[in-house]
Amino acid sequence: MSDFFQSFINNFLNFFNWEVLSTTLSDPVSWGIIGTLVILEGLLSADNALVLAVMVKHLPKEQQKKALFYGLLGAYIFRFIAIGVGTFLVQITWIKVLGGAYLLWIAISNLFFKKKEEEGEVQNKGLSFWRTVLAVEVMDIAFSVDSVLAAFGVSDQVWVLFLGGIIGVLMMRGVAQVFLKLIDKIPELEKAAFILIIIIGLKMIAGAFGVHISHVLFFSTLIVIFGGTIVLSLLRKKDKQESAN
Question: Where, subcellularly, is it found (predicted)?
């Protein structure tokens, strides 16, 4: 039992290990994975930023910024804990299999069974400042769960996961409109993101049984999926315009 807790603590200590951080920052593969996580976060969570904006809309302008900041801080604390715990637990075979299966369920349910949500479904309930902060914290954590789990399927390096997560959340908050406009112009990108999650889920399950997919193959697949999606979308639009003329 003492060995278990020692291993658990050592996993968290990687967050404060300069050698681990410098190795991460100097490795091009790590930055490729971080970029992948940022793109996934942006595509899958852009609309979440708008949900949070609606939740704080009833507060005065200055308090809106504070409530969103506290919610962001809570999301980072949650990611710190979840990544520290998760990178330790995900080494266990059956947890890897369950995690991969959950990712497959998320992706398949969104691709084939998700019902269209009505706009304006999230209503302003006029909560007090601290109750609003609590609601934003809970929503931030709920939004983070799927992203963090998907990240475990890509890497097991704490700083890679944490940097990908914090940059992704900042991107979600800062340029949510950009991602929403991109998805509006190329709606197929959202489906492409879920297809990538299916691949990540299969990668996680395969890893549980000792089958490891190389970074080259993973990044090549990523480029083919998103590049192919953009090209096909542009060709479809061109065909529609030609048919209309």
Answer: Membrane
Cα–Cα distance for residue pair 82/74, rounded to 1 Å: 12
| Residue 186 near residue 46 (C-beta atoms within 8 A) | no
Residue 117 has pLDDT above 80, yes or no: no
Nearest in space to 53 (alpha carbons), one of 183, 163, 180: 180
Place of tokens 């991109």: 182
- 131 close to 232: Cβ distance less than 8 angstroms: no
Rounded Cα distance between 97 and 164, Å, is 23
Number of Cβ within 10 Å of residue 176's Cβ equals 20
Give me 22's structure tokens.
């410098």
For residues 151 and 164, the answer to whether their CB atoms sit within 8 Å is: yes
Q: 29 pLDDT band (50/70/90 cuts)?
A: confident
Asked whether the beta carbons of 196 and 40 are under 8 A apart, the reply is: yes
Q: How far is CA 245 from the centre of its chain?
A: 41
1 band by pLDDT with thresholds 50, 70 and 90:
low
**Structure confidence at residue 51 (pLDDT):** 66
Q: DSSP state, 115?
A: P
Distances (CA, A) of 94 to 8, 29, 198, 206, 238: 18, 27, 18, 12, 47
Q: Is the pLDDT of residue 198 over 80?
A: yes
Please tell me the least confidently modeled range out of 33-42, 67-76, 117-126. 117-126
